[in-house]
Amino acid sequence: MKHEERLQERLAAYAKRGMQRSLRHRPELISFSSNDYLGLARNRELLLQLGQEKYEQMGATGSRLLSGHHPAMLELEQQLAQFHEAETALLFNTGYLGNLGLVSALLQRGDTLYYDALAHASLHDALKLAKGQAFAFAHNDLQDLERQLALAPKGLRYIWVESLYSMDGDRAPLGALADLAERYGAALLVDEAHATACFGPNGGGLVQELGLSQRIFARLHTFGKAVGSHGAVILGSSILRQYLINFARPLIYSTAMSLPQIGHLRLVYRYLEREGARLRAELQQRLAHYLALREKLALSTILTANQGPIQAIFWPGNREVLALSEYLEGQGFDLRPIRYPTVPRGQERLRICLRADMDLGDISALLEALAAYVGR
Asked: Residue 327 and residue 331: Cα distance in Å, rounded?
């Protein structure tokens, strides 16, 4: 069929450029690719508690605006709002859909959004649905952002950033961004996907750690990373919540979360209140071990030294980074290559994700294997 021939041609071109992806499951490898930063996805205590819960139904049966709403969802949203120091919370099925719904609903004709150049793919897809215009500013470059804000056309202005960037693992200058947003009358939108549960006095994220909760127009927290679950929540004012219920298409036209999923999230957040500080301390211990080995093995030219769970081995070139990934796989480690076009050409890397439940010896073995590859 001509249609399948077209698909095959595109796949072949992708493979020729070293860009083809595939699905795989390699449980025998030591994983450094998981976003389960606090080890909660396989937490035995939570799994046992979830198994003891009884639910009147499994699926939600429809969107929340039809048959899918349930009091348990509202109870979870109230729990999340309190935990994250927000007026209200609104659940979304994924962080991707949360960004899609938030940005496409807010950005209307005549409005302008300024976003960090390293923005997640969900932001770029949201902009395709939005009616306003958007411009990128250089990564974490406040001067570039202010230059653009000073030239901004009339209409509402928004600034979109991640608090902890998923590919480079560095932080946004949130305090300075909040100052800049207030100076130019812009609303600041912060994606806390990779900071959720890992930072803040109670694990509420970097916004809470910096005491900025009341200065951010909207925050997105996802549950598929350190929370070890699935879904997302947007935090903001009661007006924002009501607006999204009426205009966020991914919420309006998606079946709501299942009740077991809601129950799991309630259990996890209660567990974080009890055990979160211990888990974050264990994560910091792994980070300190990694940073010390980075210096000892003289790997500072290719390894990042971020103050968080996301690190990177910079190894330019799609084929080159794939070869390094295959070598480390042969040594028993699972690190996925991050290739162009996911990252800019020349910035290909392997991402290292540290976890609170990770064995220190595994971190040592990985960096020693990397040092051997570099030195051969």
From this structure: 7
Annotation says 25 is catalytic: no
- Among the options 84, 120, 221, 264, which is catalytic? 120
Q: Rounded CA gap, 101 and 123, in Å? A: 10
**What pTM does this model have?**
0.94
Q: How far apart are CA 57 and CA 172, in angstroms?
A: 42
Q: How far apart are CA 223 and CA 233, in angstroms?
A: 8
Three-state SS at 353: strand
Q: Establish whether 194 is a catalytic residue.
A: yes
Q: d(Cα 268, Cα 77) in Å, to the nearest integer? A: 14
Query: Which of 194, 209, 229, 258 is flagged as catalytic?
Result: 194
* 191 part of the active site: yes
DSSP E strands, the chain: 30-31, 88-92, 112-116, 133-137, 157-162, 186-191, 218-222, 232-236, 310-314, 333-334, 337-338, 349-353
> What are the tens digits of pLDDT across the range 168-217?
899 999 999 999 999 999 999 999 999 999 999 899 999 999 999 999 99
Are the CB atoms for 87 and 237 separated by under 8 Å? yes
What are 270-316's pLDDT values in tens digits?
999 999 999 999 999 999 999 999 999 999 999 999 999 999 999 99
